[in-house]
Amino acid sequence: MKNFLKPTTLLEIIEHSVKEPVLVFKHSLTCPISAGAYIRMNHGIEKKLIKYPVYIVVVQEKRELSNEIEQILNITHESPQIILIKNKQAIYDASHSDIQVNNIPLK
Fold first, then answer.
1. Strand, coil or helix: what is 88?
2. Contacts for 47 with CB less than 8 Å, ≥ 6 apart
3. Residue 50, Cβ neighbours under 10 Å: how many?
4. Domain total for the chain?
5. Which of 77, 81, 70, 75 has its CA nearest to residue 26?
6. Fewest beta carbons less than 10 Å away: which of 21, 25, 29, 75?
7. What is the pTM of this model?
8. Which among 52, 36, 34 is positioned nearest to 91, based on CA atoms?
């Protein structure tokens, strides 16, 4: 998973979603549910089950960015949470135990 390096990256990622869908994973370092979701996401990436670029936002380190995602994409904040962005719009999101690789839309 790629980490957001700077706040302006969000707009670049959203713009990139016009070319191909992008998945954002909001992760909490202190939550056991988030740890499980992190393991599932990494497994999906390693097994090439996830076909999209995946970007991670550690909410304790990037709270401002997490808030920006909520505002720009009009998504209620959850943690852990995955958000699939396509054509500059959030087209799918899931949180907590609902984060399952096989539930992520493939197209």
1. coil
2. none
3. 21
4. 1
5. 81
6. 29
7. 0.89
8. 52
Six-digit token string for 81? 């949470």
Q: Which two tokens stand for residue 11?
A: 């707009």
Q: How far apart are CA 21 and CA 39, in angstroms?
A: 21
pLDDT per residue of the chain (107 residues) written in tens, 0 to 9: 666 555 457 888 999 999 999 999 999 999 999 999 999 999 998 998 998 889 999 999 888 888 889 999 999 989 999 999 999 999 999 999 999 999 998 76
> What CATH number is given to the structural domain containing 19?
3.40.30.10
Cα gap 51→75, rounded to integer Å: 22
Domain assignment of residue 42, given as a range: 2-102
Residue 107 lies in a domain: no
Amino acid at the residue 1? M
| Side chain identity at residue 48, one-letter code | K
**CA dist 14 to 9, 46, 86, Å?**
9, 24, 8
